[in-house]
């Protein structure tokens, strides 16, 4: 009967793509509070049509969609995905409109197709393959779809606190993953945490003629001076106590990392650089990639940004900054230390307009569920490169007490998540669905 489910996928790739097109047409941008209810209802309907006990949970922020199909099996598999996407700006850098999916050269382009609606639909169709062909599901299935991952999963802990029983499973598939530079599929067992903050300084009652720069202070100049205090020439973050408590990579993690080729030259070529920060390479590069916290200026806003000149002294300036956090770091602690740093440096006039964050999380590299995923992957893609953690962030920490999570998906190194012209390979989408059918089968044998 497994063959029936696999054949169903092969015969319905185009139909699955149409489902994917349907959901990416909805601009479910959490940062703008757009399209979230509509997308949540669409997903609830898809789960309901498959016979799941599907619910929409109204919480403080975007609703959480859950589905549970209890077949009385020994094991339970969970899927975690998010239905919100990043803003699509700047629109002029898209070759086709971001919310009008377009297929060209074997790829489908749209905002959210890689992060992470392609994965979401691939998982729904893998389940549909079992149900529509009458193939017995060997595991119980739980689905959790949230709508605020791209803005820090601000209210998701509220859902978890109210639904602890639902969160328990024997293994879970996280929301992303895909093909690396070498064409090998990659799995991720962890994610860094994050502390994201918007700084703002409002120094004058209004913008004024720039000739007054001889006697009046400049908001962007003041902000630039504050930002320049955050790192030294060696890129070390200068916030007092910033690195305190960081947990080093374990011996088991290093054993896994030493087997991984991160393809340094391919990364440099992809991003158009000749070397990494401070000349990092080899083991030092790997340690930074997997276990170094960061401080990144994500955006700066002040004054006139249009064409030509406008001689103005801006009254206000703002900056968005994210700190990627590793194990042993707490976002509340970093917030306090960052605030103290600004105050101690004489920048008490720079305010925190808003902030959000969460800690890092990991699944141990020797968890048996990792081997279940590895076996399923081998049936479709052959090799699997298993990373102990990711340089990216996500609310994996919330799941640590309930279910071991492994992140695999349908993206690839050129998917351009969070960037214009986001896309996935249709072939990876097809194979990703087949892999999930095998994963469900393998978990039933576990």
Keywords:
Aminopeptidase, 6-stranded mixed β-sheet, alpha/beta, Alpha-Beta Plaits, single chain, 22% strand, 32% helix
Write the layout of secondary structure elements.
Elements: H1 2-11, H2 13-24, H3 36-49, E1 53-57, E2 64-69, E3 76-82, E4 102-104, E5 107-109, H4 113-133, E6 140-146, H5 156-162, E7 171-174, E8 178-179, E9 185-188, E10 190-191, E11 193-202, E12 208-209, H6 219-228, H7 251-257, H8 264-271, H9 282-291, E13 296-302, E14 312-313, E15 316-325, H10 331-344, E16 351-358, E17 361-362, H11 368-378, E18 384-387, E19 405-407, E20 411-412, E21 423-425, H12 426-445
Parallel strand pairs: 3-6, 3-7, 7-19, 8-20, 9-18
Antiparallel strand pairs: 1-2, 2-6, 4-5, 5-21, 8-9, 10-17, 11-15, 11-16, 12-14, 13-15
Helix pairs in contact: 1-4, 1-12, 2-4, 4-12, 11-12
CATH level 1 class label of the largest domain: Alpha Beta
Number of strands: 21
Global geometry:
globular
Strand order of the largest sheet: 1-2-6-3-7-19
- Radius of gyration using CA atoms only: 23 Å
Give the low-confidence spans.
none
What is the annotated CATH architecture of the largest domain? 3-Layer(aba) Sandwich
Q: Characterize the largest beta sheet: strand count, sense, and whether it forms a barrel.
A: 6 strands, mixed
Ends distance = 18 Å
Query: Would you give the CATH topology of the largest domain?
Result: Aminopeptidase
Supply the number of structural domains: 2
**Could you tell me the mean pLDDT?**
96
The chain-level structural class is alpha/beta
Strand portion: 15-25%
